[in-house]
Every structure is written in C-alpha cells, then in structure tokens.
Amino acid sequence: MLKIGCHLSSSKGYEAMGKTALSIGANTFQFFTRNPRGGKAKEINPLDVNKYLQLADNNHINRILAHAPYTLNAASADENLREFAGNTMADDLLRMEYTPGNYYNFHPGSHVGQGVEVGIQYIADMLNSILTPKQNTTVLLETMAGKGSEIGRSFEELREIMDRVTLKEKIGICLDTCHVWDGGYDIVNDLDGVLQKFDSIIGLSNLKTIHLNDSMNPLGAHKDRHAKIGEGMIGLEAITRIINHPELKHLPFYLETPNELDGYEREIEMLKARYIG
Ligand code: FE
Ligand code: FE
Ligand code: ZN
Question: What is the value of pTM for the model shown?
Fold first, then answer.
C-alpha cells in the first residue's frame, strides 16, 4: 500500500492531525513541531497523544514526519544562533518521544560566508550534542535546492555531515524531489542514475522519507519553488515513476505542494490510482 500524506497544521494537536489525514485518504502526515519561524512549542497534551496513538494504531497511520522550524541554522557563523538551533531541536526530540518510532526532519543550514567545510562541521557538532542512544526518533537531513549558501545541495555534502556523526543509527535522509531537481539531479530523465549516485555516496538504506513535490523551475535552477503534482517541470509521469520505483515504493511520501486540504485530497487520490505497488 502506498504510504502517503501531506503537510498538516499542528495547531489543534495530534488527534486532530490524525483525523484530518484520514479524512483526505492519507495514512501518514508531516507537521511543524512549532511555528515554522521558530518560537515556543505548544505543551504536549498526554491525553491528546494517547487518543492519537489509538487512532493511528486502528487506522495504520505511521511513520509520521515532524519538520523543524526552517529558520533554524545549525551552520550559522553566530554561536548564539547555533546554540538556539541545538536547544530547539533537543527540545523537539524530547517531545517526539511521546510518539516513538517516527522521523524528525531539518534543513541542514546555510553557511552564509564562512564556507561549506566549517558549516558542515557545525551541523555535525550540533547533532553530536543532541542525539542520544536511547532516543526513539530518527533525525533526517533534508536534501536542499542549493539556494544561497544552503548546505545539503549535493549528496556529497550530506555524506560528509553523516560521516562526522557518532550515533549514525539515529540519522538518515529525507529526499525532497523539488529540491534535488533544483539542485541539478535529473530525476525526470535519469531516475536510476540519480538513485545509483545516491546509493554510492550515501547508501539507499539511509533514505527514510520522500518529500513529493513538483518544481516550478528547470533542472539545476537552485530556486526551491514547489509546484502542484503534474503542474511543474518534473511532471506527473516522472512522479509516477518515483512512487513506483523498486528502491522507493516502500518509503513514506509527503506532499508539500501549494494546496489546501481539498487539493491534497485530490493529489493523494491521483497518486494512489497510479501506484502499482
Ligand atoms: Fe523542508
Ligand atoms: Fe521539503
Ligand atoms: Zn522546499
């Protein structure tokens, strides 16, 4: 069965997200752990979590994906900003323990001037300071489009971060189809070649989740503008090959397309119909 969902608002809690997911035909979902621009997280309500866990269990909702605020920059030249990123993520990971066995995704960061090498070391340092052997959440580095000085635009950069992390079993990769396309990986004409490259550099066993987005821009544009499925430059045929690829079809897919719930519902229905499994 296709494991698919979309990004949902977390403002009403876990049970509400579970119900919303079911109402649009999803069996997983993504959410922000707190306001995407940062700020304080809402208290965890254990009653809400328990209701959610029951609902999820009954309806096979699993492998949900929490997304860190995208303003965090673990690669910042400013020590205070790096510390803030680490503290926020450590707090998010504590909260994730209420719903064990899921994923937490973050944007590696932007080096803004001091260079990729330094930035990569900062990101690895942060991960080494917050990951614990006991945690039940896998932390994922997202593949980036390479806008500005974003780190994670190439498989090699992600590999370098992973190499420097001690608790390797606690980390993995979230591949964003819009981002890798914008980053210059031709998943339309050479999906097999891109996946072979991913495997040789990072290892496909480290690929845990897919952000399924079309892109408004051409290959290698380094822009990061998501389009609705089938309405961008990746296109429905290539996206159909992605969800059915033998190396990918078992992974959870999360839509981050410019849609309201009804649009997500239509995309989920369309992708389910194109899933051979
Ligand atoms: Fe993201
Ligand atoms: Fe994404
Ligand atoms: Zn994006």
Answer: 0.97
